[in-house]
């Protein structure tokens, strides 16, 4: 009986993983991100089942495809155990092992750890069709070479902000000169009596990104500051502040 139910669960994962949406699962990852130092043989993280019933969990790592499944995931990592049953109110330690790949050694590489949670089926009606509501969560996994210059604790100091005009629109750009990913989650520009919130995102190492400033007009004669928040290694929020420099390029018409 159990084998038949298990086979149905495995089939459900293969067929429905593409249809699962990101959700708040009752089985949670204790960490909101995973850091994999290049010197580590493996890293571990914990899951916690807050349900009053057991759940089946499957985990895998992909490179960037939100529609990935365990069968086509292409990341150079193995999760152990990849699939298991969690009893109610228990924790489970899971290990991730790097299988080897030619990754950059001067900067981080980002991957995504997927977790699919499947609630139990009704064993009494195992031969009948049942709807399984599957919950899928994804967290970032950062592969971090030991040869990256600078300390991650000082990553906010490696951000340089500029304001530029594109047509009638004002935009703020952030340049990340570090070898680390910086996951910005909020930002605010102030200049004189003006303030403008912007919705930033993750900035890759040695790259830049820009965002629109609504209802804002930059005056290079006025001092301007940007306050921002970002996710640190522990999944918490850290704050930073910087002077905004006017862009050296002319407005784009």
From TrEMBL:
Biological process annotations from GO: cell wall organization
Gene Ontology, cellular component aspect: outer membrane-bounded periplasmic space
Record InterPro entries: Ig-like_fold, PapD-like_sf, Periplasmic_pilus_chap, Pili_assmbl_chap_C_dom_sf, Pili_assmbl_chaperone_bac, Pili_assmbl_chaperone_C, Pili_assmbl_chaperone_CS, Pili_assmbl_chaperone_N
Claim: Chaperone is one of the keywords in the record: yes
Listed transmembrane segments: none
Keyword set, alphabetical order: Chaperone, Fimbrium biogenesis, Periplasm, Signal
Superkingdom classification of source: Bacteria
Domain Pili assembly chaperone C-terminal: 175-238
Cellular compartment(s): Periplasm
Signal peptide: 1-25
Every Pili assembly chaperone N-terminal domain range: 27-148
Family: Belongs to the periplasmic pilus chaperone family.
PANTHER family noted in UniProt: FIMBRIAE CHAPARONE, PILUS ASSEMBLY CHAPERONE
Stated name of the protein: Molecular chaperone
